[in-house]
Amino acid sequence: MTQQAEASQKLKPHKIWQDGHMPQPCAIVIFGATGDLAQRKLLPTLAHLMHDHPLPQSFCIVAFARRPLDDEQWRAMALKSINTYMPEDDRLDEEGQKQFASHLFYCQSTFEDSQGYQKLKQLLEKLDREQGTAGNRLFYLATPPETDSQIIAQLGAAGLSHPGQGAENGHEEHGNHSNNHGKSWARIIIEKPFGHDLATAQKLNRDLGRVFRENQIYRIDHYMGKETVQNILAFRFSNGIFEPLWNQRYIDHVQITVAESLGIGTRAEFYESEGAIRDIVQNHIMQVLCLTGMEPPVAFDAEAIRDEKVKLLRAINPLTPDEAKQDVVRAQYVAGEVDGKHVVGYKEEQGVKPDSTTETFVALKFFIENWRWEDVPFYIRTGKRLPKRSTEVTIQFKRVPHQLYKPSETKGLVPNRLTIRIQPDEGIALKIGAKVPGAANQLSSVDMSFSYNQAFGIESPEAYERLIADCILGDSTLFIRRDEIEASWRIIDSITKVWKQLPPRRCILIKLEPGGLLRRMGCLSAMDVPGITLSCLWHDAAEARVYIS
Ligand SMILES: NC(=O)c1ccc[n+]([C@@H]2O[C@H](COP(=O)([O-])OP(=O)(O)OC[C@H]3O[C@@H](n4cnc5c(N)ncnc54)[C@H](OP(=O)(O)O)[C@@H]3O)[C@@H](O)[C@H]2O)c1
């Protein structure tokens, strides 16, 4: 390929600050700044944001962490991270690194020590005076979930849930709509998992509510920062031809798949307590489900969109114990080979109990009980060590009411199917029937395809970049509201409570009979990966093998 052709294939940079939306100066305080999320995602994202989409000069990042470091040691640590984790063609040159480092500050404390929060308060006030952070604070809790309530209470006790006095017109945010015009603000981002079940999520919401107003709270799910997830709304509500078909009259079923090819890696402790249903279904899949199924909002704003998402979640009845047994399958991956290399099974992973019943795969069926979706099954599935990494939503339309062609002529034909690929290879494909060229009447399904990269030639922002930028701007559209998170847990609890009561079963092999459980559940195709026994997925196969624990 010529250099010119290569250059023309290079994606153009995206815009993150829309016209008229300029970020205010602020201090971002990262709790858990030495942890995996902060080092691998947050710091590289902030470095990119600062370098490519200039943040105001008076912008600071404060690490609140327990290791005995000073500002210079913290800067060296942060630079090492961004040089390791930023994509190669994004890395900052020496001057850029120096610039970035000059915005970093360190406050040493444990989460438990109230003195530490006083120290933090003094540091933030100093930054307001010396760096011009204008009293604006964003607290990012990249922390073990069990420490969140402690940190929230300590922030409240230290008076840090209110903005500082740095702004000329220093006022708190009031009312439902947060904006930046002339007011200073304090906001908090809470990472997933938000609670372990409904009761713990409600408790965390109460703990937050004692210290912060709802419009200061940003519950993050990084899936909502993905362009392709946001595009579900754009696709549905900006195209006149699909919305009239988007209902039970024309849609046979919907499938939402989040498949990962990797195992649990080093996250055994976390995964053992969460499993696939809490790690993926309760948050990412429920968000995608909401955007796919919700009614049109009255406006494109945070409250209107989240109102519709909550309405949709409320239309999903918690599963009865019988439904939870019949319509939900869970499984664990077993040992096998991937790319010629032996990989261990879940129970053999370091840190996993040999008798663990934690599911690494879950497939289930929901119904949304409203006019639009009556009797349309939503098949959900997610798992680790699956044949390929893929997140997609498939809308399967009903067959034509009367088939004119002979069965022998339509063997290669499937009903219309719209697939929204969220990752990788982001795009949309619509399967349509077409005549194979030649004298015979032979029909086949073909794809009409749209690829994000090819269509726009613009790089997509990293999910965290979009979400952090939105939080700085005070736009909570892509964040999860209190009632939304609780509605989602109510559904998940109806399944996990039944699981808790079931005796752990030995692994059994399920055959997928035509019309049998897995086929009905949308686990419609066997994709055999050498040695990996868990192989139920996707469309049109006669058999799938699933180990259920
Ligand atoms: N990692 C990811 O990709 C990812 C993705 C989505 C969500 N999350 C969520 O983000 C949160 C953080 O995850 P992580 O993977 O970054 O966890 P992690 O690597 O275990 O980091 C935890 C951080 O908290 C600090 N910490 C723990 N207890 C403390 C205490 N008592 N006082 C002061 N500091 C303390 C640790 O400090 P030390 O370094 O000194 O131990 C470390 O900086 C979790 O809720 C996780 O579920 C993570």
Sequence-ordered SSE layout with sheet pairings:
Elements: H1 3-9, E1 26-31, H2 36-52, E2 59-65, H3 71-85, H4 94-101, E3 104-108, H5 114-130, E4 137-141, H6 148-157, E5 186-190, H7 198-211, E6 217-219, H8 227-237, E7 251-259, H9 268-293, H10 302-314, H11 321-326, E8 328-331, E9 336-338, E10 341-343, E11 361-367, E12 377-383, E13 390-397, E14 417-423, E15 427-435, E16 443-451, H12 452-456, H13 463-473, H14 482-501, E17 508-509, H15 517-520, E18 547-548
Parallel strand pairs: 1-2, 1-4, 2-3, 4-5, 5-6, 7-12
Antiparallel strand pairs: 7-13, 8-11, 9-10, 11-12, 13-14, 14-15, 15-16, 17-18
Question: Could you explain how this protein is built, in words?
Answer:
- Helices cover 34% and strands 18% of the residues.
- It contains 15 helices and 18 strands.
- The strands form 4 sheets. An 8-stranded mixed β-sheet has the order 8-11-12-7-13-14-15-16. A 6-stranded parallel β-sheet has the order 3-2-1-4-5-6.
- The termini are far apart.
- The site of NADP nicotinamide-adenine-dinucleotide phosphate has 21 residues, from helix 2.
Features:
549 residues, alpha/beta, eight-stranded mixed beta sheet, six-stranded parallel beta sheet, globular, binds NADP nicotinamide-adenine-dinucleotide phosphate
Task: Kindly summarize this structure in a few lines.
The protein has 549 residues and is α/β, with parallel strands linked by helices.
